[in-house]
Design goal:
Distance between the termini: 19 Å
Strand order of the largest sheet: 3-2-4-1-5
Radius of gyration: 15 Å
Number of domains: 1
Largest sheet: 5 strands, parallel
Order of helices and strands: EHEHEHHHEHE
Number of helices: 6
Shape: globular
Number of strands: 5
Structural class: alpha/beta
Strand content: 5-15%
């Protein structure tokens, strides 16, 4: 049985972040960010090199799936909606309908869950999709996790 999780980093300390992973026995970490760095000293622990070193140290496999990150065009669609709504990106509560529709069409239309699981390997049981937003509904990771959960008939847990 495969379990699916999502996690953001905003609002978490380094200790809190890694404790979430350990407490939920995450064994496979899927980074679906376009840019694998976060601005500001507060979140340097999730910048790619540091993150990968720490995950290796605690026994969690790391994968980067650029194909699941939004294109610059998609990011601009959401950015425009945020500006119209006068919402700061870090305070966003949800994604726009247009972003969700286009993300599904552009990124997940031909998603093959069996191929994806095979890429992760037979030891992948507790799979986590990671991006930065605190709220899963405000991040594309929830769309990707939802797609996989439907294929596998699994529940998504947002950490």
């Amino acid at each position: 049985m495969i379990n699916i999780f999502t996690c953001g980093v905003y609002g978490s300390s380094e200790k809190e972040f890694f404790n979430k992973l350990l407490e939920n026995k995450i064994d496979t970490f899927c980074d679906i960010r376009r840019r694998r760095a976060v601005r500001g000293s507060e979140y340097t622990f999730v910048n790619s090199e540091k993150l990968q070193m720490k995950l290796k140290k605690i026994g969690i496999s790391y994968f980067h799936f650029l194909e699941f990150s939004p294109s610059l065009e998609l990011m601009n669609i959401q950015k425009e909606m945020d500006i119209k709504s006068k919402i700061n990106r870090r305070k966003r509560e949800s994604l726009s309908e247009e972003f969700i529709k286009r993300f599904n069409e552009e990124k997940l239309k031909n998603f093959d869950s069996d191929k994806f699981i095979n890429t992760l390997g037979k030891n992948a049981k507790n799979i986590l999709f990671f991006c930065v937003e605190k709220n899963p509904e405000a991040c594309h990771r929830s769309i990707v996790a939802d797609k996989l959960s439907h294929s596998l008939k699994a529940v998504v847990v947002h950490l």
